[in-house]
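Hi U.,

Before I forget, here's the chain from the pilot set. I'm dumping it here mostly so it's searchable later in email.
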Amino acid sequence: MRLPFIRAALIVFTASFCMLVIELVAGRVLAPHVGVSLVTWTSVIGVVLAGISAGAYAGGWLADRRPAVSTVGWILLAAGVTSMAIVPATALLAGEEGLLSSMGIATTLVARVVVLSLMLFFLPAFFLGVISPLAVKLAVSDLDTAGRVVGRLYALSTLGSIAGTFTTGFWLIASFGSRSTLLGAGVVLIAAALLFGDLLGRRGRVTGALVLLAGMTYAITHTDPVLPPVRDPLLHAGVGTIYVTESQYYTILVERTVREDNGSTINALHLDHLVHSYSDPHDLAYLEYEYLRTFYEVVSEVARRHPAFRLLFIGGGGYTLPRLVERDHPLARIDVVEIDPAVTRVARQWLGLSRNGRIRTFNEDARWFAMRTEDEQHYDAIFIDAFNDLSVPYHLTTREMTARLRRLLRPDGVLAANVVDDYRRGRFLPAYVRTLESVFGEGHAAITLEAPEDTESNRSTFVVMAAQSLPALEKAYVIPPSDLRRYLAERQPIVLTDDYAPVDNMLAPLFSQRFADEVRP
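Structure:
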């Protein structure tokens, strides 16, 4: 093979590899600020494709006017610099006090995700899109073999994309975190510019080789996600951030804060944008959220029927309620399905989850767990604590999933889930209730909340229950059955199915209210 083709092949493979690294990491970068949803991935993929398309057009123009190796080098350098800039630009733009929030720009979920995607990922995608036309121009020297050369370069470019996809999804993010992965992609592109771009001659190639060697050495010797060191200025007062890590699913943060009722120190678990749970190591009975108190009232009702009951929790988080049930009910058997093993590790390290207790954890997707669990009529109650206002795993909301969970329940078992929505205008809450009724039967679902006035709020947390015999709750406010029938008749909700469950679009309006709450003085 000729040297120009080998150079072009290495360039397109590297560029495509890094492009897919950036595209996959993009979702993790945006997650702490806008959640991970269909809206997020639609925007990321659309913006990246737009950048590549514009870059390919510009690259064709540039290839006819400056078909030089140094041109490719400068483009690779620009791609590397803009890739490394994603991390600081995210903090500048998307943080709670970032420019978008402070200037009141892009206040809806779709607008915020699209604007952030454009500002963070368009330029790296554009510069990487420029490279292929330039590489083809440098590699083709004979029109008689142009088709063969272009085909091989396209194949190598695709192989680079495949390699970038699998390497990022299965190793890079889990081992180094999204920030270090992005910085690593930038380093690789800058090293490629020096090695193959003829920017500084032999000195540049030596420098590029040293940069690449240093990066590979770092990758071999460091296998844990690396995030900025925790230097919370509030820690001197006994509160503040005490731990940060990044997993394949979340940016996980543990914050030391204080209880509002007595001022004692507690730990708060943050998963991406959401404060998921509060844990008081000295008072397991402390339940910050009302929906957990409603869940516990359901547990108490189940315990009166079957003292040796069995529970399934979908979503572990801080394991707040499972740990309380473990303490108060010595005959109970408790299973927790938590998709992220890093969350379980954090709960054990910082939130008081025992390694030797009666809580069994299954670190896998809840749908997969339900599919492979063969025992029927197994649980007295199933609690779903995996829904929030910006990111709902739609495959856990459907009629098919509900039917599978129904088979896991005993005849008098209860299914309960926390749902965040706007009661008056929201679309997800009534659709989920209708979906439960499609499995359990009309009149066998209920909505509970802390107080009747919560139905007037723009965003409230509800507990939706379904059972053949609904538990009688004394502390939570249960919407009267006649009001619920009228509510569902007025809303005419759809039944969520595996084929059609537009949950992300249903919940998108809540982002505007979240934004308004954050910026309201």
